[in-house]
């Protein structure tokens, strides 16, 4: 997987399966049909994730969790479907389990300062997506340097660390999306891949993010925004939106080009029809000195281009030059 080439698009399934294994499989299949490069889940053991005193959240996680064996089956199913599988671990035991299944690890925004988990993941020497919600540049730098401490020397500049702009709010309101932070991250962390993990409603923000240089897009994905009251469905793209977002991103990639300012193939074909030549504005007799008011500039191939007027003015004609005729150097002296 080359993260420096085309945009890597992740359908963030997260917990939108709500603990239903068949729904999880359907989400994987549908994400592939929409054109996503990868699907991402969340793997956790509730006791190692949230406090039991948070009764409502704990019960929800107990309901939504999938077993390690189910995740193994989902990884195998993803391989069969032809889409990359990975999951965000929310505890060390889950991370150690996932290391058997995946080549990419995501560190969630909530855990970009959970250094025991980061250390565990970093020691796997695999690609890491570091989400940056809840963190400023200083905190991101600390997390980045912490990861590099555990990587083999040969991996340090390998573009295997991706830093994802993210705002940890559900949903993110438009004034707080702060998409220009992507450019800031590109400048500050030029040795890393920069991406965007989206929590806005709709698909406009991820599309804009690509134009700003994001090479990874992570968008929450659901089969139905009204599936339940679980908040993630509302900030997720449904299949129609996901397909539209991906198609838009692929078109943008083509339209952005290589960034070099150069003539395009179509321009080379058109240049002879669109550039102007210097022509006679009036009939100019033989032997006459050409004066400025006798010149005109029209779209006509093969003549002297604008900017060469000094080569013509005050030169005598060797032949009569007719109105509208190109003024060539071999016809004057």
- CATH fold title of the largest domain: TIM Barrel
Whole-number average pLDDT? 95
Integer-rounded radius of gyration: 30 Å
CATH superfamily of the largest domain: Aldolase class I
Strand content: 15-25%
Percent helix: 25-40%
* Total strands: 10
Report the top-level CATH class of the largest domain.
Alpha Beta
CATH architectural category of the largest domain = Alpha-Beta Barrel
| Class by alpha and beta content | alpha/beta
Shape: elongated
Whole-Å distance between the termini? 65 Å
Q: What is the chain-wise order of helices and strands?
A: EHEHHEHEHEHEHEHEHHHEE
* Main sheet overview: 8 strands, parallel
Give the uncertain stretches in residue-range form.
Answer: none
| Number of DSSP helical runs | 11
**Structural domain tally:** 2
Strand ordering within the main sheet: 3-2-1-8-7-6-5-4
Task: Break the fold down into its secondary structure elements and pairings.
Blueprint: E1 8-14, H1 21-34, E2 38-43, H2 55-64, H3 68-81, E3 84-89, H4 92-98, E4 104-107, H5 115-122, E5 127-131, H6 137-149, E6 161-165, H7 181-188, E7 193-198, H8 204-211, E8 216-220, H9 231-234, H10 239-256, H11 265-274, E9 276-280, E10 295-299
Helix pairs in contact: 1-3, 1-10, 5-6, 8-10
């Amino acid at each position: 997987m080359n993260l420096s080439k085309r945009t890597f698009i992740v359908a963030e399934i997260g917990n939108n399966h709500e603990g239903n294994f068949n729904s999880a499989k359907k989400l994987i299949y549908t994400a592939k049909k929409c054109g996503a490069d990868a699907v991402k889940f969340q793997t956790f053991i509730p006791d190692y994730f949230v406090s039991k005193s948070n009764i409502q959240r704990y019960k929800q996680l107990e309901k939504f969790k999938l077993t390690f064996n189910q995740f193994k089956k989902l990884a195998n199913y993803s391989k069969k479907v032809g889409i990359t599988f990975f999951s965000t671990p929310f505890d060390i035991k889950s991370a150690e389990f996932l290391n058997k299944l995946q080549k990419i690890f995501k560190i969630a925004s909530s855990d970009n300062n959970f250094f025991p988990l980061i250390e565990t993941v970093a020691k796997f020497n695999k690609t890491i997506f570091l989400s940056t919600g809840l963190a400023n540049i200083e905190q991101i730098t600390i997390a980045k340097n912490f990861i590099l401490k555990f990587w083999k020397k040969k991996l340090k500049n390998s573009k295997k660390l991706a830093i994802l702009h993210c705002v940890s709010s559900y949903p993110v309101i438009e004034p707080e999306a702060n998409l220009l932070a992507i450019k800031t991250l590109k400048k500050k962390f030029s040795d890393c891949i920069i991406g965007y993990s989206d929590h806005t409603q709709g698909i406009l923000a991820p599309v804009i993010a690509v134009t700003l240089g994001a090479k990874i897009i992570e968008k929450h994905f659901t089969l139905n925004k009204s599936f339940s009251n679980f908040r993630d469905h509302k900030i997720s793209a449904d299949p129609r939106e996901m397909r539209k977002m991906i198609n838009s991103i692929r078109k943008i990639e083509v339209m952005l080009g290589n960034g070099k300012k150069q003539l395009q193939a179509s321009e080379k074909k058109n240049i002879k029809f669109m550039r102007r030549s210097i022509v006679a504005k009036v009939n100019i007799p033989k032997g006459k000195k050409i004066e400025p008011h006798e010149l005109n500039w029209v779209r006509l191939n093969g003549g002297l281009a604008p900017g060469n007027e000094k080569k013509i003015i005050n030169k005598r004609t060797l032949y009569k030059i007719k109105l509208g005729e190109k003024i060539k150097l071999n016809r004057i002296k």
